[in-house]
Amino acid sequence: MTDQTKAAGSATLNYGGKTVDLPVLSGTTGPDVIDIRKLYGATEAFTYDPGFTSTAACESGLTFIDGDKGTLLHRGYPIDQLAKHSNFVEVCHLLLHGELPTASEYESFERSITMHTMLHSQFDRFFEGFRRDAHPMAIMVGTVGALSAFYHDSLDIHDPVQRNISAIRLIAKMPTIAARAFKYSVGQPFIHPKNDLNYAENFLRMCFAVPAEEYEVNPVLAKAMDRIFILHADHEQNASTSTVRLAGSSGANPFACIAAGIACLWGPSHGGANEEALNMLKEIGTPEKIPEFIAGVKDKRYKLMGFGHRVYKNYDPRAKVMQESANEVLAAVGDPNDPLFQVAKELEQVALNDEYFIERKLYPNVDFYSGITLSAMGFPTTMFTVLFALARTVGWIAQWQEMMADPSQKIGRPRQLYTGPTERDYVPISQRG
Ligand code: CMC
C-alpha cells in the first residue's frame, strides 16, 4: 500500500456461522475497495468474479477512468487536454515518471528515445522467417518477445536502472519493428529510422518511404498519428495490461511481458476491434443498409463493433477526439464525403437513439472512428492493431514498472470454483469401456 491509500472503515461479512470484518480502503478518487486478502484464511471461502467485473487486482497511480462520466485521466490530466496540447513523447514521460517533463527533462527524454530506435542488424532475420502473407500482429508477437535475446544487459528486473533502459528500448524500437512488419507484408525494403524526425514523423517515414524517392512527411498526418498514439497510450487495468502485469508477476523479463500483452491485445473484443469495425462499415456499405444491420445486432447475431465498453457507460472520451482526427485526415488526404465515414456517422446516430443501445449504455468507443482514420492515412486493416500495440507499449511498460517497484508485489495466482470430477482411481486402458 502507498501513502495515497487510506483506511475507510470496514465491511462485515457473515458466512458459515462466522462474522468477518474486512477493511475498506480509499484511493484518491473512484470507488472504495473491500480488502479481501484475509478472507480465505478467515472463512475458507474464495470470492468468485470471472471477468474481474468487481475486482481491483492492484493499486495504481497511472490512469483513472470514470466510466459513468466518460472521463479518462493520465496522472490526473484529462485525455482531451493531452490530445490537444501535448505530444506522445511527453505523455510517455508523464506515464513513466509521474509528471510532465520540464524543458530540459523533455529534451533528454526525447533524445534517449531517439538514440534507441535502431534494431540490431541480426534482428532483421526474424522477419524473413515469416511467410510473406503473415499477419503483422503475428510478426509483432514473435519479434517483440525475441528482443529478450538481444538485450541481456537490461534484463535484471530488480534493478530500477535496467528496468528504465528496457522501457526506453521498448518505446523506441516498437515503431521500427511495427514499420518492418508492415514493409515485410507489402514486400518493400526496410527503411531505417531517421534521428531528425519526431516520433510520429519517423514512424510514418519508416512505413511509407521507399528508397527510390524522397519522402516528405505530411504534417497533418504526423499530427494525427501522434494524437492516435496519445489516445491509445494507457487505459488502466484492461485485458492486455492485466496480462502484462500477470506475466511480470512471475519475474518474466519485460520484453516477454510486452509480447504477452500484444498477444492479448490481438483479440477482436480488445485491440482487434478497430479492424473489425472497419470491416463492418465496409460490409454495411451504404446508409440504407443500416436498419437491417441494426436489426441483426438486436437479434444478437453479431455485435456493433466499436461500440460498448466494460468501463465506459457513456461516450468514450477518446472516440470524440478520434472523430475530430478522422475529419482532419479525410480533409487533408481523403474524401471528407467518404461513404464509409458517412455510414459511420449515421450508424452512430441511429444506435445512440435506439432503445437497445440506450438501455445497455452502449456508446462509441475509441475503435469506432480509428479504422476510417488509419485507412485514409494509408494503413491496411491488418496494421490497425499493430498501431494500437505500438502506442500501448508505454502504458504496459509503465504499469509493469509500477508493479515491479511495489514491495508488496506477489505472483498473480487466481483461485477457482472447481466443477470437475472429484478424486477417482486410475483405470487401465484394457478396462475402459
Ligand atoms: N453490440 C451489441 N450489443 C452489445 C455490444 C455491442 N458492441 N456490446 C455489449 N453489448 C450488449 C451485450 O450483448 C449485453 O447484452 P445483454 O444484456 O442483452 O446480454 C450487454 O450489452 C452487456 O454487454 P457485455 O458483453 O456484458 O459487456 P462487457 O463489459 O463484457 O463487454 C466489450 C465489453 C467491449 C467486450 C463489448 O461491449 C464488445 O464486445 N464491444 C464490441 C467490441 C469492441 O468495440 N471492443 C473495443 C473496446 S475499446 C478498445 C479496447 O479497450 O480494446
Automatic annotation (TrEMBL):
InterPro entries xrefs: Citrate_synth-like_lrg_a-sub, Citrate_synth-like_sm_a-sub, Citrate_synthase, Citrate_synthase_AS, Citrate_synthase_bac-typ, Citrate_synthase_sf, Citrate_synthase_typ-I
GO molecular function, one term: citrate synthase activity
Pathway entry: Carbohydrate metabolism; tricarboxylic acid cycle; isocitrate from oxaloacetate: step 1/2
Transmembrane feature ranges: 368-391
SUPFAM superfamilies noted in UniProt: Citrate synthase
Keywords associated with the record: Acyltransferase, Membrane, Transferase, Transmembrane, Transmembrane helix, Tricarboxylic acid cycle
Catalytic activity line of the entry: oxaloacetate + acetyl-CoA + H2O = citrate + CoA + H(+)
Family stated for the protein in its record: Belongs to the citrate synthase family.
Protein name according to UniProt: Citrate synthase
Organism: Brevundimonas balnearis
Lineage: Bacteria, Pseudomonadati, Pseudomonadota, Alphaproteobacteria, Caulobacterales
